[in-house]
Amino acid sequence: MTNFQFSDSDGIELVKMARRVVTEFLKNNSKISDSEFDSKFDFSSGVFVTLNKEDDLRGCIGYPTPVKKLSGGLIVENDFSSGLLLPQVPTEYGWNEEEFLEHTCQKAGLNKDAWKEKSTTISKFQGVIFKEEKPNGNIIRESSNDLL
């Protein structure tokens, strides 16, 4: 299985797993053993988790491995700085391609025009997005039509 072959039931299981891991760490300051997870997810892949409270971003962490240049979300890297924006972000904010590049540079702590520098590496990646409609609520697959 690759990250693009997730069924809706896989997505539901993964979101519940992410919630369980975060909850366990915050409540008990402990980690869940890898052996507690379904072996069908035992493969190398990137992962990214975003936490929202209502419509406000509360935090995000992860690092998807770039799989293909020029398609999807963006990763900008320059020296020891890197920034990542998920594929749905420019659509949510109504950004054009240049604004997407500028904001990803700023997320990396770089000048907004750093993407034009030869020393800057730009990668794009694909993703499959599952989310809860509300905390502990139904888990849905975000339509790929909503993404770039």
Order of helices and strands: HEEEEHHEEE
CATH superfamily, by name, is Hypothetical protein ph0010, domain 2
Task: Enumerate the strands of the largest sheet in spatial order, edge to edge or round the barrel.
Answer: 4-3-5
Query: What structural category do the secondary elements indicate?
Result: alpha+beta
Known CATH architecture: 2-Layer Sandwich
Output the CATH topology: Dna Ligase, domain 1
List the helices and strands and how they pair.
Elements lengths: L7 H21 L19 E6 L2 E7 L10 E6 L2 E5 L3 H5 L3 H11 L13 E5 L4 E3 L6 E3 L7
Antiparallel strand pairs: 1-2, 3-4, 3-5, 6-7
Q: Any overview of this molecule?
A:
There is one protein chain. The chain has a single domain (8-146), classed as Hypothetical protein ph0010, domain 2 (Dna Ligase, domain 1, 2-Layer Sandwich), CATH 3.30.1490. 25% of the residues lie in helices and 24% in strands. The chain has helices at 8-28, 89-93, 97-107; strands at 48-53, 56-62, 73-78, 81-85, 121-125, 130-132, 139-141. The strands form 3 sheets. A 3-stranded antiparallel sheet has the order 4-3-5, covered by helices on one side. The protein has a two-stranded antiparallel ribbon with strand order 1-2. Strands 6-7 form a two-stranded antiparallel sheet. Strand 3 (73-78) and strand 4 (81-85) form a beta hairpin. The chain is globular and about 45 Å long. The protein starts with 7 loop residues before the first helix and ends in a 7-residue tail after the last strand. Mean pLDDT is 82; it is low at 66-71.
